[in-house]
C-alpha cells in the first residue's frame, strides 16, 4: 500500500535541520501537555471506572474512523501515500475493544463529546490538504507507537483486561516499533515541502495536539473529574 521497506532520500539544507527533527522539537511541549492530561493520569491510576474508559474508547473510535476515511480518499496522493500502511489501522481494534467493554449492541450508543466532534470535523477537512492529513496521521500513529504502547500495558493491568478491551494499544503487524518510526520520520524528511509548507504542517500538528488535549478535558468533565478546563 505504500513505499514502506524501500529506500528514502531525505530533503534538507545546510542551515535547516531535518524536518522530522524540527517537527519533534516544535511540538514537544504540546506533546507533553497532552500526555499529562488529568484524565489519562487518573485512568492509569485506576481512578476512573470501566464506563469512563469505554467512553474514551468511543471517542478514539470516532477520531480514527475520520482519519482512516480520509486516508482512503487520499490513497492516490503523492504526498500522503508514502505514509499509508494497513499496519497502522486502529478502527478494527477499537470496535472490538468497545464491543468487549460495553457489548456489541451498545457500540454506537455512547455519546461523542463536543471536543471529539470538533476534532473529527477538522480531520475530515484534511481530505483537501494532504500535508494536513499527514500532520494528523503523524500525531496520532507515532504517538500510539511511542507512549501508547506503555499506556496500554498499564491500562490492561489496572482494569484486569487481556486482549479484549486493550487491543488498540497493540500493533501485531509491527514487530519492532523503533525501525518503523525511524522509517516514518525518513518519509517526513523526504516529503517535497518548501519551508512555508513545512510551517503549515507544523502548525497543524500543534492544532492536532490541542484538539486531542481538548478531548481529554471533555472526558474529565464527563466523568466528574476535578480540574476540567
Automatic annotation (TrEMBL):
CDD domains: HemeO (cd19165)
Keywords linked to the UniProt accession: Heme, Iron, Metal-binding
Regions annotated as coiled coil: none
Gene Ontology molecular function: heme binding; heme oxygenase (decyclizing) activity; metal ion binding
Transmembrane segments: none
Record-linked InterPro entries: Haem_Oase, Haem_Oase-like, Haem_Oase-like_multi-hlx
One Pfam family matching this protein: Heme_oxygenase
Keyword Heme: yes
Signal peptide stretch: none
One BP term from GO: response to oxidative stress
The protein, known as: Biliverdin-producing heme oxygenase
Species name: Phytoactinopolyspora alkaliphila
Phylogenetic lineage: Bacteria, Bacillati, Actinomycetota, Actinomycetes, Jiangellales
